[in-house]
Design goal:
Blueprint (H helix, E strand, L loop, with lengths): L1 H14 L3 H22 L21 H5 L6 E5 L6 H14 L4 E5 L15 E5 L8 H11 L3 E4 L7 H6 L5 E10 L2 E4 L11 E2 L5 E8 L4 E6 L5 E8 L2 E6 L9 H8 L13 E6 L12 H7 L3 H20 L3 E6 L17 H12 L3 E6 L24 H18 L7 E2 L8 H10 L5 E2 L17 E2 L5 E2 L4 E2 L6 H13 L2 E6 L15 H18 L5 E2 L1 H13 L1 E6 L4 E6 L6
Parallel strand pairs: 1-2, 1-3, 3-4, 4-11, 12-13, 12-20, 12-21, 13-14, 15-16, 16-18, 19-20
Antiparallel strand pairs: 5-8, 6-7, 6-9, 9-10, 10-11, 17-18, 22-23
Helix pairs in contact: 4-7, 7-13, 9-14
Length: about 575
């Protein structure tokens, strides 16, 4: 019966004169169905996180993690010498993040008692003029001969005591002159990203002119290959490491951490192991009209460029490198901070672009109800920014709650936790409000590197006292020709084994962010960075903002101690929750 029925229907269909119109109608219905599915957002689900947050009360700040542990390292400084305060501050943070319990002695303090060296397995000396140490220099070298590891972290001055210990620490001869150091080339087997040259942004005559004996193992040289910048040598049963870089900024921490790791047969320290990629102002209201350089290169409107070029190109990068983008949402670009927040009426573009991001298993975070940083009237922007202050605490909280509610309305499947401050500006009051009044925000991703502006919220990787995760971004944009950012990137691969990057959809509207060069060059610069990252750290985990923050929680609390024998390194991990 069924076969006969189907044959009858088929025969009638063949005699039907409007077959073509029906086929066209079917195609249009299929397209409409696809558009309907996209507009409803049913093609994406909840972001699948590979690692999630610890409870706030279980996340441990790094300083708390090593508090009370017996110091294994002695940091010797002379605060009266120029540059020592910068070096000491840098080393303090490096040793904290490496979870090396440290005692500091300042020889400029006449009341300070120089401790017994037998209590320590490593010593870091941070002063250029070693004569200030006097006989303690010789004591340190005698201690090193018996199995200790000493690191001279600052470019030394040519003095009597340097000449005395020079042969023991690898120096055959030295001059009184300092040489210009334009960049650094670490050896390939010494650091991740080694074998390449990384340029300094403000080079000066920072390195002592030295010649090393053949027993010294050179780990990094100047960009011209003539000056050794990091080397190690055996001192009987112990070891000595010398850093001859002469620059002590945040951008070089990974080089000093790598140098410290040469003290002893092995060094183990906790890292983050995450690469996160942020899209600021995405999703957000798409600018109407044309962009000068977008129109020049693509003859498209801004909206057409975003949907037909920019996002498809990012998807290709994501598929090629395993990236999972974290977009941070702006509800509107108004500057009204005094009235009650008004709900955005056009949710379609948020649903569309947010849906595309979630379909890629990416994440949506928070950027702001509008693009006004969270500051109160006591913050003075001066001529630096044209932003508007918020009148009081309640206005800030209401704006964040409106953003959270709006996001849940247009993207109900989104799970959000990370806040990115507009222009990386966040006042002390705004930061406190987040920790106390907006529990939905679990992490803040501002900027890692120092800024010329006093308004910038500069962070360290870690957990704050209020339980909020500090998860800064390191590099940004296409990085075309920006050697400072590449230097920062390689440094942080070796310091925290982390890469955090951000970009804006509207970079191509701003000449200062690469608009004039065009998207093709911008894209090539980003692709070049990703190629470098993949070759330098092929095992690094591609994470969303939440996953990176969760990894930072575990890194912050984790401690490592190691016992060495003839045939083993035995690690003892403290505060290990589930992974590290």
């Amino acid at each position: 019966m069924i076969r006969g029925f189907l044959s009858d229907v088929l025969a009638k269909w063949k005699r039907f004169r409007w077959q073509g119109l029906v086929k066209v109608w079917a195609v249009f219905m299929a397209i409409a169905l696809v558009l309907l599915v996209e507009s409803l957002g049913v093609h994406y689900g909840v972001t699948r996180f590979d690692i999630t947050y610890l409870d706030r009360n279980k996340a441990i700040p790094a300083a708390n993690a090593i508090a009370g542990e017996k110091a294994t390292n002695l940091l010797v400084v002379d605060s009266s010498q120029e540059g020592v305060s910068d070096a000491e501050a840098m080393l303090d943070q490096i040793l904290l993040d490496m979870k090396v319990p440290t005692t500091t002695v300042d020889v400029a303090d006449e009341n300070a008692e120089f401790p017994a060296l037998t209590h320590y397995s490593t010593i870091v000396v941070a002063m250029p003029n070693l004569d200030r140490l006097g006989e303690h220099v010789l004591q340190i070298m005698q201690w090193a001969k018996k199995g200790g590891g000493v690191m001279f972290a600052m470019t030394p001055e040519k003095t009597g005591y340097l000449d005395v210990i020079g042969p023991q620490i690898g120096i055959e001869s030295s001059a009184y002159e300092y040489v210009l150091t334009k960049g650094i080339t670490p050896s390939k087997d010494f650091m991740l990203g080694g074998g390449q040259t990384y340029t300094f942004s403000d080079p000066f005559e920072s390195s002592l002119s030295v010649a090393l004996h053949d027993r010294a193992q050179v780990k990094a040289v100047s960009s011209n290959g003539r000056t050794p910048l990091i080397w190690s040598t055996f001192v009987n049963s112990g070891s000595a490491v010398v850093c001859n870089i002469g620059i002590y900024g945040k951008v070089l921490r990974g080089f000093y951490a790598s140098a410290f790791s040469l003290l002893g047969s092995a060094t183990a320290y906790p890292v983050i192991n995450s690469a996160a990629f942020y899209l600021d102002d995405f999703p957000s209201p798409v600018p109407s009209g044309n962009g000068k350089y977008i129109k020049r290169d693509y003859n498209m409107s801004i909206a057409e460029f975003y949907s037909q070029v920019w996002w498809p190109d990012l998807v290709r990068l994501a598929e090629r490198y395993g990236i999972r983008f974290t977009g941070v949402m702006i509800e509107n670009y108004g500057d009204d901070t005094k009235d009650d927040p008004v709900r955005q009426t056009d949710g379609a573009q948020f649903e569309y672009y947010g849906g595309l991001l979630l379909r890629q298993n990416g994440e949506i975070g928070y950027h702001g109800y509008n693009h006004q940083p969270l500051v109160l009237p006591n913050t003075d922007y001066g001529k630096e920014y044209a932003y508007v202050q918020w009148p009081n605490r309640k206005a800030i909280v209401d704006s964040l709650n409106e953003l959270i509610a709006f996001q849940k309305d247009v993207l109900p499947a989104a799970t959000s936790s990370v806040y990115v401050p507009p222009s990386n500006i966040l006042s002390q009051e705004g930061r406190k409000i987040i920790g106390e009044d907006v529990s939905q925000i679990r992490a803040i991703a501002s900027t890692y590197m120092p800024s010329d502006s006093s308004l910038t919220y500069v962070q360290e990787f870690g957990v704050a006292a209020d339980g909020v995760v500090e998860a800064p971004r390191i590099v940004s944009g296409g990085m075309v020709g920006d050697m400072y950012m590449r230097l920062a990137a390689v440094s942080e691969l070796n310091m925290h084994y982390v890469s955090t990057h951000f970009m804006h959809p509207d970079d191509l509207l701003d000449e200062d962010r690469g608009a004039k060069e065009g998207w093709k060059k911008y894209y090539q610069g980003l692709e070049n960075y990703l190629d470098w990252l993949e070759s330098s750290a092929p095992s690094i985990r591609m994470r969303t903002g939440t996953e990176c923050a969760a990894a930072i929680q575990r890194f912050s609390g984790l401690t490592v101690s190691m016992e060495t024998s003839d045939d083993s390194w035995d690690l003892k991990l403290g505060n290990l929750t589930d992974q590290g």
